[in-house]
Design goal:
CATH class of the largest domain: Alpha Beta
Shape: globular
Helix content: 25-40%
CATH architecture of the largest domain: 2-Layer Sandwich
Distance between the termini: 69 Å
Structural class: alpha+beta
CATH topology of the largest domain: Alpha-Beta Plaits
Strand order of the largest sheet: 2-4-3-11-8-10-9-5
C-alpha cells in the first residue's frame, strides 16, 4: 500500500511518478514505466493509490486562452462582516459564474481571489458590476489585475531537482479559427485530460484518427499547451504562497534576470506578468514558514536593485483550481452559439465569417470551413469541394459560397465540384443556374453518415 512516512513525505516511487505527470499529465502507464524503469503494474498501482488517497485531486488542461480570444483578469477581495454561511454563498456564486475560471480563498490581508475571462474590457466591466451587485456590501477592499503572461513550471519541489521545463500562456488576443468539433474535443480534454483518443472518438462518434489529427493540430496552433496534475498540497505537507512584487526597476536585463532566478528555484510553480496590483507575481510550495522566509530573504540580493516592496498571501484552497481550460471552452462555445438554433450551424456561421478568399475564374479546391467569395463577373467559376476523407470531415462541416456582388449565377455560372463524392445523391457536379439566380448565398454541408454533400440556400430560397 502507498504510505507516507512520519514527515508526510511520499515514497520515492510515488514522487517520481508525480514528477513524470507534472506538465505531462497525458503520459500513460507504459511511458512512465519505461522512463522510470518500473513495471507497468507498479506504476498503475502507485498512481491509482495516489488518486484514491486524494493526493492527486485530478488533472487539468493548459490552454492558451489568449488564442481562444480571452483577456485574463484577476480580482482580489478583502471581505467584511461575512458569516461562514454567507462566505459559502459567495464562493458558490463565483464558482458557478460562466466567466470565472477559478476561485481561491486566501489567508493574509486579502480573503478571496477570482480569475475572470472576457473577450473585452466592456464585458469585464459587466461581470464586475454583476459581482458587486451580488456581494458589494461585503467588500472592504478590491484590487484588479490583468495577466499578460503566465508560466506554468514543472513541480520541482517534489524531487528537489532543478528543471527549467515550462508551459507559457502568452501572446496577442486572437479570434479562434476552430470549429464545433475542435470545441467539443477541447471540452472533453478540459473535463478529462487523460481520456484516450478511442474513448473521445466513441463519445463524438468519429474515428480515432480524426481525434488524433485534431488534437495535434490544436497543439500546433498553440491552443493546447499541455496537461498538468492537480495535487493536494496540504496532504503532502506543503503551504501554497502567492507573492506580489512591486519593483523599483523593471528595465532589462534586471527584470529578465529576476524571472530566470525565480524559475531556477525548486519550489516555484507559477510566474505571472501582470498589469495592475503588482509588477511581478510568483507562487511557491514550501514546507514551513522558515523555508518561505529564507526564500524571500535570498530573493533581495539576487534581484539586485530590481525588487521593491513585496506582499504575500497564502492560498488556502482553490475551487476548481486551475480549471480555466473548461471555463474558457465553455465560454467560447456560448459566445459562438449565442441564441437559439442548431449548434453546428451557429458555430459554422461564426467560424466561416473569419476566413474570406476571392475566387476568380480558375478552378480551385475549397477547404473545409471556407467562406468563398465568388467573382464570376468575367467568366464561369468552378470550385471543387474538399475531399472529406483527407480533410477529416465530420457531419456538419461546411463550405459557404457567396458572390462579391449580385448573385451566384449572373451571366456566368458557378459550378461546385463534387470531388469524388455525391451531391444530394447525384454523382454530378452542382451548377448554379437561372433557376436559382436570386440565391445570394449557398452552403455545402457534409453528411458523414450518408457519405454525401447537401446544398442549402442561406439567403433567399430558390429552386436548387
Amino acid at each position: 500500500m502507498l504510505k507516507l512516512n512520519e514527515k508526510n513525505i511520499l515514497n520515492h516511487k510515488a514522487e517520481k511518478i508525480l514528477d513524470c505527470l507534472s506538465l505531462n499529465a497525458r503520459i500513460n502507464y507504459s511511458e512512465i514505466s519505461k522512463k522510470l524503469g518500473l513495471s507497468r503494474q507498479v506504476v498503475k498501482y502507485q498512481q491509482d493509490m495516489l488518486e484514491e488517497k486524494r493526493i492527486i485531486e485530478g488533472y487539468y488542461a493548459i490552454f492558451n486562452i489568449f488564442k481562444l480570444g480571452f483577456l485574463y483578469h484577476r480580482i482580489l477581495f478583502r471581505l467584511r462582516n461575512v458569516s461562514a454561511e454567507k462566505e459559502a454563498n459567495i464562493l458558490d456564486y463565483f464558482a458557478n459564474h460562466k466567466n470565472i475560471g477559478w476561485v481561491c480563498q486566501l489567508d493574509g490581508h486579502l480573503d478571496l481571489a477570482i480569475a475572470v475571462w472576457t473577450r473585452s474590457i466592456v464585458e469585464f466591466e459587466k461581470v464586475l458590476h454583476q459581482s458587486l451587485s451580488q456581494i458589494g456590501e461585503f467588500i472592504e477592499e478590491k484590487h484588479i489585475s490583468i495577466a499578460t503572461e503566465i508560466h506554468h513550471l514543472k513541480h520541482k519541489f517534489l524531487l528537489g531537482k532543478k528543471n527549467l521545463d515550462e508551459l507559457v500562456v502568452n501572446g496577442e488576443i486572437e479570434s479562434p479559427h476552430i470549429d464545433d468539433l475542435d470545441f467539443n474535443i477541447l471540452g472533453i480534454l478540459a473535463t478529462n485530460p487523460r481520456k484516450s483518443y478511442t474513448d473521445i472518438s466513441k463519445e463524438l462518434q468519429i474515428k480515432p484518427k480524426v481525434v488524433n489529427y485534431r488534437i495535434h493540430t490544436l497543439i500546433e496552433k498553440g491552443i493546447i499547451l499541455g496537461f498538468n496534475v492537480k495535487l493536494n498540497h496540504r496532504a503532502l505537507g506543503y503551504t501554497h504562497h502567492k507573492v506580489y512584487l512591486n519593483l523599483v526597476n523593471i528595465q532589462e536585463p534586471g527584470f529578465s534576470n529576476l524571472i530566470h532566478y525565480l524559475k531556477d528555484l525548486t519550489n516555484t510553480i507559477y510566474i505571472t506578468k501582470p498589469l495592475g496590483m503588482a509588477d511581478l507575481e510568483f507562487e511557491l510550495m514550501v514546507k514551513t514558514n522558515e523555508e518561505f522566509h529564507i526564500t524571500m530573504k535570498d530573493l533581495t540580493p539576487k534581484a539586485d536593485d530590481t525588487a521593491g516592496p513585496t506582499g504575500s498571501l497564502v492560498a488556502l484552497d482553490y475551487n476548481d483550481s486551475r480549471d480555466e481550460a473548461q471555463n474558457a471552452v465553455t465560454n467560447s462555445n456560448q459566445t459562438l452559439t449565442a441564441g437559439a438554433g442548431d449548434n453546428v450551424e451557429q458555430l459554422t456561421n461564426a467560424i466561416l465569417a473569419s476566413g474570406r478568399r476571392v475566387v476568380r475564374g480558375d478552378a480551385e479546391t475549397a477547404v473545409l470551413g471556407d467562406r468563398v467569395i465568388v467573382d464570376n463577373s468575367a467568366g464561369a467559376v468552378t470550385i471543387s469541394l474538399p475531399d472529406p476523407d483527407t480533410a477529416y470531415a465530420y457531419t456538419g462541416g461546411a463550405v459557404d459560397f457567396e458572390p462579391v456582388a449580385g448573385d451566384l449565377y449572373s451571366v456566368n455560372s458557378l459550378t461546385i465540384g463534387r470531388n469524388g463524392k455525391t451531391i444530394m445523391g447525384s454523382a454530378t457536379d452542382f451548377v448554379m443556374n437561372s433557376l436559382n439566380a436570386d440565391n445570394k448565398k449557398v452552403r455545402a454541408t457534409w453528411d458523414a453518415v450518408a457519405d454525401d454533400w447537401t446544398i442549402s440556400v442561406l439567403s433567399i430560397v430558390g429552386a436548387p
